[in-house]
Amino acid sequence: MTDRKEFRDLASPEAAHEAIASLDLAPGTETVSLAEARGRVLAERLDAALDVPGFDRASVDGYAVRAHDTFGADEADPARLDLVGEVHAGVEPDVTVGDGEAAEISTGAVVPDGADAVVMVERTDTEGDEVLVRTSLAPGDRIMFAGADVAAGERALGPGTEITAREIGLLSALGVAEVPVRGRPTVGIVSTGDELVRPGETLDSDAGQIYDVNSYTVAAGVEAAGGEARLYPHAGDDRAEMERVLREAADECDLVLSSGSTSASAVDVIYRVIEERGDLLLHGVAVKPGKPMLVGTLGGSAYVGLPGYPVSALTIFRTFVAPAIRRAAGVPEPEGATVTGAMAVEERYAEGRLRYMPAGLVEDGDGNTLVYPVDKGSGATTSLVEADGVVAVPPDTEYLAKGETVEVQLFAPDVRAPTVFGVGEDDPALARLLDRVERPRYLGQGSRPGLRRVRDGVADVAVTSAPDDGRVETVELGAWTREWGLVVPSGNPDGVEGLGSLVDDDLRFVNRTTDSGLRTSLSNTLADLADERGVERRDLVEAIDGFDRAVRAHESPARRVLAGKADAGLGLRATADALDAGFVPVGTETVRVLAAPDRADKPGVRRLAAAVADGGDVFDALAGYGTDKA
Amino acid sequence: MTDRKEFRDLASPEAAHEAIASLDLAPGTETVSLAEARGRVLAERLDAALDVPGFDRASVDGYAVRAHDTFGADEADPARLDLVGEVHAGVEPDVTVGDGEAAEISTGAVVPDGADAVVMVERTDTEGDEVLVRTSLAPGDRIMFAGADVAAGERALGPGTEITAREIGLLSALGVAEVPVRGRPTVGIVSTGDELVRPGETLDSDAGQIYDVNSYTVAAGVEAAGGEARLYPHAGDDRAEMERVLREAADECDLVLSSGSTSASAVDVIYRVIEERGDLLLHGVAVKPGKPMLVGTLGGSAYVGLPGYPVSALTIFRTFVAPAIRRAAGVPEPEGATVTGAMAVEERYAEGRLRYMPAGLVEDGDGNTLVYPVDKGSGATTSLVEADGVVAVPPDTEYLAKGETVEVQLFAPDVRAPTVFGVGEDDPALARLLDRVERPRYLGQGSRPGLRRVRDGVADVAVTSAPDDGRVETVELGAWTREWGLVVPSGNPDGVEGLGSLVDDDLRFVNRTTDSGLRTSLSNTLADLADERGVERRDLVEAIDGFDRAVRAHESPARRVLAGKADAGLGLRATADALDAGFVPVGTETVRVLAAPDRADKPGVRRLAAAVADGGDVFDALAGYGTDKA
């Protein structure tokens, strides 16, 4: 291991912002076509190079005349002029208007030489070759003079202007087809984990491979901030190759990002490359998450090392890196990038450093925004999707009180609270019903967490299959039944007949986790079997090989059975059916959709209730489902 | 002319929304790569097809063990286990952990068969081939089980989900490389004016050609709303060709837009194509602007005809068409698409139909948003750039009071009030100084409109070259001088010597408009000359050919002279210099930057003052400029 520069004290968040601000990310100017200019930022001032309009232009359909010929004319006593020709829009006039003459002219046409006013057709009549003008005109009437809209030499747009539809309008009026815009900073994202595989490639789970989440998440953040992301996947567990990729990224990009690797060797390589080719500006920042953040230079490029946990990587990216990319690209922080809301629950905290708390949004029954901390316990990916943004909690804050107003820095502008937030059973019918609700959020964490989060004032809705114990006050929005039992290999090779077989035969069983309502149904049925047999329920449980081998979602036990890792798994008939597995029925349970009483009238909650009520087609399509309560 | 269906009554705005909503713009589903998925909308539900993680994963660096081997172990009395191997992240374990055994394991590695817990390295020691575990573990400790984060079969993302960084994260965790997204509605924009030319092409101003503004402006609006714009320029004044282009657009696009043409023949062609191949749903809506709006179908496509004035086209597009495109694309109305503010001035209105009033934003000295009507008189392109959005004024509103709160529907989300809003002289030094201020808005309408708009509480700053008459209370932020005179052809072929030559010789002169401070300086100097000669100023004015031939911006007279359309023009030495023209000096005038007293402390106003104070380089670079007051 190379010697590492020592950074004994963690840097302050301000120092980290300054270190990143000191890095030069700004790319040069590039030229894009007008059609590609929207959303870009003008690199330099554009003065008008021509007059708009470029000629004296008729503002109405009518006749081009000499104003002094009409002095004194009115309805009763029109001026009589000789019609000498006509002028159409887009055509050069082939007529000159002399004293006592008029030329027919259409809107937008060039006012012919000699004429100094246009009279609208409504104020005229014709008699043979004569035009009768029934009004008196002043010179310039109904003419838009050349340059009256935009004059050549005028300042049109300044540097730094973001190009939207209206700027496109001005540019096209000036005939500008190529627009000088600020370049997008190029951001290389170096993938550092030996175990990371690109989405779309085959995953070898037995070798502990996982798909690369951070590279793609951060790349999306880079693009949203106005940068151009380039992914540099690294080829296997080879330090020389890793070093080559880092150097290549540093050569090709304005900024290089990597996110925390589980492999110490990757960090060593990064250190070495920074020491040989750049400068380490800081290592470690007094924020949570992000303590291990690295900031430095790599050759002429900037380098920032992000934490490895996806929500943390996105948080540090959003807080420290995205503003620097936006500055370099000249893009302002978007409107709607923050929202304020009241804490839905109390959150204790006492670590003495600035914390970026991942937070979800939910609306109460009155449409007020509530903010709740997203539990890291849910798993990295689930937390990533549940978190709408982060709340910056100052180091000296001991707790955020329930109801306290906080500001959430959103992970993407335009993120909104879901219309309905449910927690509960993982259920295939529910998955389909949720498709009929706009912007729902649902966490399939099981019946108990569902009721708990409704009780805590976080979730709107709990979906439970456990009998209602009445401890949490709710309103039932709807319910259905599902047949459950044992999922076995196709053809039931072990001749499993029911729960008795689990107890009596030498079968490897896979259970669901204790939060699952299905497990409660299993336990209750086992208690009945124990009564029948005159033994303790505990005796039966101990006789089942794998009763404590618990997995989280409705298909998980079945998949273990199909993978040959178990002989029977707790599951639904619908799951066995969908996966072409065998099924031994045990019972039918009722799944209830329960709302917090003060959230029952939220539009999204009502839509979910309607989806359940109208869900006959969904229940019909799934084996073992029905709507007669068990 | 073909017979037209009669629509005697104007349709209500609601009917127009309904007619457009009745058109089917929705494109099919398409598949994009993960890298291109940001900002798109998921077309269908995605359930997880695999477990995340896909294996039982060590959460820390340490040792994989059997938990029951550690029961009762603590600091003082560690469990002693035989070290039997090691497991790295990304590599399949080649070891099995038996009773009394341990395997070294790194974070993220696969927990080897036999082990059911991981102890973190900090709670262990090694002695030779033995691992001393100084804590008691429960089964499952420090292991993230397969599917604990996301389980196969779980609902991952629902249809209609907008894909941001976090959804990219979830998709990559699931290994999804190709994402089914809603197609973007294809919107054909048919250019209909005979006189329209594409930006980048050569303009024949003598033939009354102008660049096509609406097609490009509306195209940018289409893209911003989530559609894909296609431009169909039409080739000249040929009805058959126009008809062919319309039919082609209808065949290729989900929606066809055209914007009001000045040529009646284009409207006739549109009518004929709609009648032959579609259906006219409504013609004319009781809104201002937009009365002539057409809604119909063309073959299988929808058709909407927009007004021709650019701000009106953008208004009708934003109000009626963009929501339909967003709906079809599945994109929600962006946050920040509206702002509220107080009317800066009173606005009278009594037309009895809904009016979309183009409005600009400005902030008062306290940072409150003010809203002012954008004057159509400024010219089509200038209005387009000045208008930040529109205020919907109900038909029964007779006036909007000064201070009344109104809601502005912005033309682009993230549009903000300029940091400083100035109106006044068109001046090349000012154009450069404004480059040093972020997001300024400046209208070069002349000294008088500048003072008037400061007095009205609309503009922050007036830039004048007329002597201060004290009628508007202001604070002077800075000033400079500029030399003015007569711009003549290079070499001064007519031997112009000064204003006297204009009076005495047969010269064609070009003046500036009456709002220009330069014209005031000219008039004052002519008055002096009249005194000298003992005549009336009016006599001199009448002797000048073209004294009333007035153009708007500082370069305009010079350009007329260079184009051979005049022999002398009112202008600046700097302009003559920049355009390589001749120059006959007449005088020096002072340009003053004056702020409304209650706006003088706005940050943008202070930045402008600083830019003037530090503008020495700008004044040095321009001929005839200085900072010693005249």
TrEMBL record, chains A, B:
Pathway: Cofactor biosynthesis; molybdopterin biosynthesis. Keywords: Molybdenum cofactor biosynthesis. GO terms for biological process: Mo-molybdopterin cofactor biosynthetic process. It comes from the Archaea. Gene3D superfamilies: MoaB/Mog-like domain (3.40.980.10), MoeA, C-terminal, domain IV (2.40.340.10), Molybdopterin biosynthesis moea protein, domain 2 (3.90.105.10), Molybdopterin biosynthesis moea protein, domain 3 (2.170.190.11). SMART domains: MoCF_biosynth (SM00852). PROSITE patterns: MOCF_BIOSYNTHESIS_2. Coiled coil: none annotated. Pfam families: MoCF_biosynth (PF00994), MoeA_C (PF03454), MoeA_N (PF03453), PBP_like (PF12727). This is Molybdopterin biosynthesis protein. Residues 188-327 form the MoaB/Mog domain. The keyword DNA damage does not apply.
